[in-house]
Specification:
Blueprint (H helix, E strand, L loop, with lengths): L1 H20 L1 H7 L22 H12 L6 E5 L2 E5 L3 H8 L25 H11 L5 H21 L9 E2 H17 L9 H22 L7 H4 L3 H27 L5 H10 L13 H9 L8 H32 L1 H14 L7 H4 L3 H13 L6 E3 L5 E3 L2 E3 L4 E4 L1 H4 L3 H4 L13 H6 L18 H18 E4 L9 E2 L5 E2 L4 E6 L2
Subcellular location: Endoplasmic reticulum membrane; Microsome membrane
InterPro entries: Cyt_P450, Cyt_P450_CS, Cyt_P450_E_grp-II, Cyt_P450_sf, Cytochrome_P450_Monoox
Pfam families: p450
Length: 504
């Protein structure tokens, strides 16, 4: 009895001190509407017993009828949901809002650009930015054309009028292209089964990691490590890491690392190799270069995590976006014909040049509309390190800001009464000019946006040119039948089943 009393008193004192230390946070939270405040558990009950697919449907139904901005509690963690573009801009453009919440650590990429702490991320991002400069991106176009032409040729075997899942083929294609361009390593020599295993395993691994976010009882690492989910994660992480190890081995065989004193002599003789005058180097070359300086804080594990981050980011996001786009092209044959005619006007045969890509305005509109309604990322989260003013509210330090892109990109207040309808004319220049620049941010925005965003647009356009120029696409799937499932990369409730017909 004495022990129980002692424990009870200790717990009460701890709780009161905890509340007192967060007095400012609670005071600011009270100024924001919050319909789901329950003692201790907050809003956790909304997630219990729901699958990722059910979560999207449930949350979308709620969010269209809830106040904005809105607060919710995930146990002791204050969540502030912000979906108004002008407020989103205040958050994402703030230098005090580049830190990501602790839940990003669940993805085991806390040393790469995806999940690194703000101070480490700032340094690495600045050093790696040049690896996606216009000069580097332009140098990728011949490789992208060669890989896209090869992929288009391989589709001949599918041009039989029978349905097939194009995502499986695209996942392998994007894995090969991202490695050939940004890593200078040709993975096309690998067996098809190995490449497909990497992609399917990574998708499932990160889906599991994402589910852990809204299962708050799995947040404490000691508890999580006792579960079957953790054991599955360990198994999948080993498979996931094999590909980056393979790339590192290929790079070492191709370009053996020079001793540090020899590197320094070369830098002294060639000022363009100094950080003050960086050459246009691909991602892996720049990473190898900056990893040589211990001050940059890239150990062996960090080096591999940077590769893992770029590899998965460039693989699954592009594969999903391309598969979604081929699906919507099949759903809307009139728009497909418009895209085809534009391609024939710009580049009727042969490789697509870097300059040609900017002329594909109809294709870009179609791509953007597909990504608006079938987003790659459903939400973005930030953890402000200081109080941040977002229009009329003050976001306290210690809160977690959630930006639901899925809801923003279907908001009738932004896109009009037909927001749920597919219409690429939403991205006509005059309509874009009328909207807030943060109304459509598929790759996030602000200083911590996606480093490979421009690469993604270029690689997708090149592939679509080669495929649409050669094949007519059809599908039996309707947009209204598609439901989205929460994951690191949003998934569909259906396979990407299309049919191909060879154009005459």
């Amino acid at each position: 009895m004495i022990v129980l009393v002692f424990v009870g008193v200790f717990a009460l004192v701890y709780y009161l001190n905890f509340r007192r230390s967060r007095k400012r946070l609670y005071a600011l939270a009270e100024r924001i509407p919050g319909p789901f405040d329950y003692p201790l558990i907050g809003s956790i009950w909304l997630t219990i017993g729901k699958s990722p697919l059910e979560m999207v449907t449930h949350l979308m139904e709620l969010m269209h009828h809830l106040p904005s901005p809105m607060r919710a509690w995930l146990g002791p963690f204050l969540l502030i949901v912000i979906d108004r573009p002008e407020m989103v801009q205040d958050i994402l453009s703030s230098p005090d809002c580049v830190q990501k919440p602790f839940m990003y650590d669940f993805f085991r990429l806390s040393k790469g650009l995806f999940g690194a702490p703000a101070t480490l991320w700032k340094r690495h991002r600045k050093l790696l930015n040049t690896s996606f400069s216009p000069a580097v991106l332009k140098s990728f176009v011949p490789t992208l054309n060669a890989k896209a032409a090869q992929f288009s040729q391989e589709l001949e075997g599918q041009a039989s009028g029978e349905c097939f899942d194009v995502h499986t083929l695209l996942a392998r294609y994007t894995l090969v292209t991202i490695s050939s361009t940004t890593f200078g390593a040709d993975l096309s020599v690998e067996k098809r089964e190995v490449l497909e295993e990497y992609s399917s395993n990574a998708i499932q691994m990160f889906t599991n990691c994402f589910e852990r976010i809204y299962k708050a009882w799995l947040h404490p690492e000691p508890i999580y490590r006792l579960t079957a989910a953790f054991r599955e994660e360990e198994m999948r992480l080993k498979i996931f890491k094999r590909m980056s190890k393979k790339i590192m081995a290929m790079r070492q065989a191709l370009v053996p690392r020079k001793p540090k004193d020899e590197q320094q002599q070369q830098q002294d003789s060639d000022p363009e190799d100094n950080q003050e005058f960086p050459k246009a180097k691909i991602f892996i070359e720049r990473l190898e270069e900056i990893a040589q300086d211990p001050a940059n804080g890239i150990d062996e594990d960090g080096f591999q995590q940077h590769i893992d981050t770029m590899l998965f980011g460039g693989n699954d996001t592009s594969a999903q976006a391309l598969a979604n786009t081929l699906l919507t092209l099949g759903m809307y044959p009139d728009w497909q014909e418009r895209v085809y005619q534009e391609i024939m006007d710009v580049a009727p045969s042969g490789p697509i040049s870097y300059d040609d890509l900017s002329k594909l305005t109809c294709m870009e509109m179609f791509l953007k509309e597909t990504i608006r309604l079938l987003p790659i990322t459903g939400l973005v989260a930030r953890a402000p390190v200081k109080e941040v003013q977002a229009q009329h509210i003050t976001v306290p330090s210690g809160a977690i800001v959630l930006i639901p892109l899925l809801k923003m990109h279907r908001d009738k207040a932004i896109w009009g009464p037909d927001a749920e309808q597919f219409n690429p004319d939403n991205f006509l220049p005059e309509r874009c000019a009328e909207r807030h620049p943060y109304a459509f941010i598929p790759f996030s925005q602000g200083p911590r946006n996606c480093i490979g965003m421009k690469y993604g647009w270029i690689s997708m356009k090149v592939l679509l040119c080669h495929v649409v120029r050669r094949y007519r696409i059809a599908t039996d799937i309707k947009l209204r039948d598609i439901k989205l499932s929460l994951s690191l990369v949003m998934k569909l409730n259906t396979k990407h089943l299309i049919r191909l017909e060879r154009r005459l």
